[in-house]
Each structure stands twice: as C-alpha cells, then as structure tokens.
Predict the structure.
Amino acid sequence: MLRQCVCRKLRPKTPFAARALSSPAVHNPHLREFKYRDTVRVKNGELELTKEEHAKIDRFIRINQAGETAAVTIYKGQMAVLGGNPHLKELLTHMRDQEAVHLEIMDKHIVDFKVRPTLLQPVAAVGGYFLGVTSALLGVKSAMTCTEAVETRIGNHYNDQLRDLYAMKYSQLEELKQSIAKCRDEELEHLDTAVEHGSQLAPLYKLQFELIKGGCGVAIWLCDRI
C-alpha cells in the first residue's frame, strides 16, 4: 500500500498537545553580538535558534498553512459535486473537518512564531476548490485519486519537516513537532480512505496521480518563496 512509501518511524508516542504556543517570536537585544543567532520567546522560556533554523521553521509553517487552506477547499469542491450521495457527503465532511482543525493549528503557529503568510494564500484557496470540483466531475474514483495524490505528497512533506525538527533537539519545539505529527497521521488516514474507495481504479489513474502530486510539489515551492 502507498502508506509504506511514507516513513512512519518519526511518529511521536506522546499525545497531541492541544494548547498552542502562547507568546510571539521576538528578538532578544542582549544577543545582538551573536550575528548568526535568533532568540524566539515561547511558552517554556526563550529558545535560541540559528538564523538557518529559524528560517526553516518559518518556511515550514508558511507552507503548511497554505497547504491546509487548499486541503479544506479541495473537500469543499468535491462536496459541491458529490454531496448528494449521503455516504460520500459524510466521508468528505469528516475529512474536511479534520483539515479545518489542521488549518486552525497552523494559523496559531503563524501567530506564535510571527511567520509571514504566503502571498499566494488566496490562490491556494481558489486552486484547491477548483481541483476538488474538477476531480469530482471526473467521477468518485478520480476524486479519490486526487485525495490519494495530495495526501501522498503532503505526508512525505510533513515527514521531511519532522526529520529536521527532531534534529534540532529543542524541547520548546515539542508542541510544534506534535502538531505536525498529528496532521501527518490524519493525512495518511485520508490516503488509506481514498485507496479503499477505489482511487487506483480511476481512468488514467497513473496520469492523474502524477499530475496532481507534481502540482502539489510546484505549489509548495511557490508558497515557500512568495
């Protein structure tokens, strides 16, 4: 199953901490002599990061917020076409609601770490809805192919972030790690759900899958830089 393509060794065993970081990022004037270091004030005290580490966390959160925005609107678009089927409506509503929680989490981290959102946030919302509607118009199986492709790309993307975050070894980042792990695990559940509902039986499955997954990669690259 495609789940095996996503490394799952990084899943933390601790429960997800629902509370967001409480204090915004600030620059500590007492550390001005450290040319290549930033200080971020978090709820457990001050966290001193290299500029490279701070920039990496900034990119992670910015990309994740845009991705979760698109995910919510993908399911809204699919529901607009397939919502007349009670079973599909319930299924899509469940996945949309989980994505909405993911978006709330990333919105909080945007504030906590004083991250600049991507300027492409509105494009992510409109593009996600368009992808959801288009995939659903091609049929239920194609809609599930869309979900499988998106969640495969995002699952791997979250795992890449977790590898980098665990390498930083800062206890103050534990909640951010748990947030991303929670999102990753639920994205992989959506992937399995899509496969169970016939995603790989869609017409031109391989073509649809690779196009959508590749498009997600391009979107990630753009949101990182704009």
About this structure: The CA atoms of residues 142 and 204 lie 9 Å apart.
